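Reagents: none. Just compute today. Aldehyde dehydrogenase family protein.
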Amino acid sequence: MIDEITADIIPAMITRGGSFIDGKWRVAVNPSYGDLTDPATGRVFVTTAQATVHDVAMAARTASRAFPMWRETPVARRAQILYSIADRLEAWRSCAEAIIMRNNGKPYLEASMDVTDAISVFRYYAELIETVGIGSSARIDLPDSQFSGEARRVPLGPIGMIVAWNFPLVTAAWKMAPALACGCTVVLKPSELSPLADCLYGEISREAGLPDGVLNIVTGGPEIGQALTERPELAKISFTGSNCVGKHIMGAIASRLLPATMELGGKSSIIVLDGSDVETAAEIVAGGIFFNCGQMCSATSRVLVARPLLPALMDCLVVHAERLRSTLGRPDAGMGPISNEIQYIKTRAAMDDIRQDQLDVATCMDLPELAKQRGGFYVPPVIVREPPVTHPIWTRELFSPFMAVHGFNTVEDAVRMANDTPFGLAGSVIGPDGNLARMVGRQLRAGHVWINTPQVIFPQSCWGGFGQSGIGRELGIWGLEACTSLQFITSSV
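Predicted 3D structure written out:
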């Protein structure tokens, strides 16, 4: 049970040290401190030290000094260390799961999936780096025989990474694993709301044999992230978070023409075509918004259903929502609480708007008694029928377990409605004819589209969005290339 997970599981230096720099946990001079709250109870369970701007400067300089050594480390050795990080993370699994459950409020199954995903990403890049030849040259034939050409990818250098609070461990793995694989060093800033799981990487990296200075971690709030974006030693910034903060970071680094990867969220749709199996569709639709209590940048919170299916699918979705609502606060709950008080306040405000605007709510918006007794940041799953397409539940990324459902008459209408958003991170299509579903999926303005499947994301796939959902791609070979730059050499023969 979450109540049985105590602060004792957390290595002491993670809570006492605000920074992991040059292979050691450091306590800042005159550090600030931050309280971390258990989302299941609303009570503080641990207080942690935070880094200072001076620590950020030290971490960036350390990463810069370590870069030449790590860049020249043989690929086989880098791969070996990444495999070891995956192995050590597996050894730390129970601790990592417990921390995610306590710090983020996730049910055990979701916490376990996060650890498994992070492990698989490190193993994937350990294998990939040995086959793609980062640093090796590819011969390019030139039209003049007096010259030869070669192209090679080289690591960018030290990379600053700022990650979000909703998927600690996983988001950091997506960024760190390809960077370390290709020879870049790292300064990682976890979210101040959920730093503990990401701080485990400091302990794990030492055990895995990662040389001192290659991975550095600084904790703290926006001022630490701001300081990181201003460090001249860094060759790139990689950020996952809100659109607003992403734009601020882009502005901060624009004068230095610093490359960036920005994963900035979305407002995604799932289309259910006529003839779909209702039970299967309901399972996929519910998972697309209620997993992680709706706190996913890829959440398919806008549901577009062929009108002949709408009544039956709504009935099934309400059953799914009620099952989740009725178990809130229980050890076997299928959905945890909102992960932090800041997001909880925003979620409750959105619920108030739904009530005040008298939207057609299909589900019960009351909490079960156990969830009320526990306190914490519990909210019920909410399903709204055909809200105005100008309402925030249809247009804004609410990061909450709130689903809006609209019927459609033609496939063309569904595609138009799905694409009517400035975001373009993800989309999903469900249909009895796989070829038709894929044809519809290809028309979606989205970086990642699922066809007749839940939101599975493999390390080999590509992640990133169109429009306001960000810049650049992560995972797969594209994640590796994002940490490198192309060099072309022309030689006389």
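DSSP finds 17 helices and 22 strands in the chain.
Action item: order primers for follow-up constructs.
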